Recover the amino acids of this structure.
């Protein structure tokens, strides 16, 4: 179903920070609201990827406000972007947990007063967080869930990206494997080879400025990504290595939209369990890579599919 023609609304923005307490320590979560939370429409909360890649690359989703009057809430999870804090690199690995980020999300929802009605859209790690949150905490105000290019377990993610790594030219694959084995992942050669993988499966080069901003933030403050993931998308050595919510996703009762791309890091092996196990689910596949909202070939269709899903449950 296609939306009726619309009158484009002006992009009104409000930014702020919410205090987030963890034990005796206090942090601040930066957020941005595009649109009016008093409009009566359930807002869409956007969960960025990484962990530890800031929100900017997902800002094309702000178009959903002008498209169908759905307020969109972006935020940077603590440890990255505008929610960075002093001493982030000194935090023990035990600090960085899925529960930490679910608590932060709960705190943001309560602060903004949207706990009685909201939608979640998670991308990559954000989709993993969204699926875990929906299947473990079952928030009563959650109305729609969108899982873009994620997986219900890190084992499935590794299976997918491992297959893609094997399909790379031998010299690229062998160089990546050599540097990871020798612990020289700070080498320019290693990052050059990773760039070939990312251009093929993450986002087409040249990268949009918003993506460069987000990945630049991660390169400047790599603690969260390196602690929870490891050196790369296909070599998971961090605290998320054994993560899974596969056995809980059948308990997600809200309407759910699952998406991935043909050339995505999240191949069908990642997303098909969502489609098979979540009771009320749709699956849309796009023609390009991991970032459909940044790809010229997919962006308009992706935004339309999301808008239709949120507007016509």
């Amino acid at each position: 179903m296609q939306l009726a023609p619309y009158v484009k609304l002006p992009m009104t923005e409000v930014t702020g920070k919410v205090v987030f307490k963890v034990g005796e320590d206090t942090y601040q979560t930066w957020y941005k609201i595009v649109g009016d939370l008093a409009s009566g429409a359930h807002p869409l909360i956007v969960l960025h990827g990484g962990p530890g890649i800031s929100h900017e690359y997902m800002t094309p989703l702000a178009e959903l406000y002008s498209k169908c009057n759905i307020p969109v809430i972006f935020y940077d999870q603590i440890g990255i972007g505008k929610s960075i804090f002093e001493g982030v690199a000194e935090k023990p690995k035990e600090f960085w947990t899925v529960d930490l980020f679910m608590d932060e999300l709960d705190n943001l929802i309560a602060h903004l007063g949207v706990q009685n009605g909201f939608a979640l859209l998670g991308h990559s790690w954000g989709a993993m967080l969204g699926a875990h949150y929906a299947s473990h905490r079952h928030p009563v105000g959650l109305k729609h869930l969108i899982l873009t290019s994620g997986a219900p377990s890190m084992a499935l993610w590794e299976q997918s990206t491992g297959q893609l790594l094997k399909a790379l030219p031998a010299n690229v694959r062998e160089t990546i494997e050599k540097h990871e084995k020798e612990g020289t992942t700070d080498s320019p050669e290693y990052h050059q080879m990773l760039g070939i993988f990312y251009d093929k499966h993450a986002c087409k080069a040249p990268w949009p400025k918003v993506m460069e901003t987000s990945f630049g933030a991660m390169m400047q403050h790599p603690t969260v990504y390196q602690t929870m993931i490891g050196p790369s998308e296909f070599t998971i050595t961090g605290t998320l290595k054994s993560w899974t919510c596969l056995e809980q996703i059948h308990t997600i009762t809200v309407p759910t939209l699952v998406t991935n791309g043909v050339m995505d890091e999240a191949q069908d092996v990642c997303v098909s369990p969502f489609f098979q196990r979540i009771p009320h689910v749709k699956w849309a596949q796009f023609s390009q890579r991991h970032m459909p909202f940044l790809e010229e070939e997919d962006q308009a269709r992706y935004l339309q599919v999301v808008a239709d899903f949120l507007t016509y449950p």
Notes: Residues 52 and 75 are 12 Å apart (CA to CA). Residues 13-311 form a domain with the Rossmann fold fold (CATH 3.40.50.1820). The longest strand covers residues 13-22. The chain is about 35% helix and 15% strand.
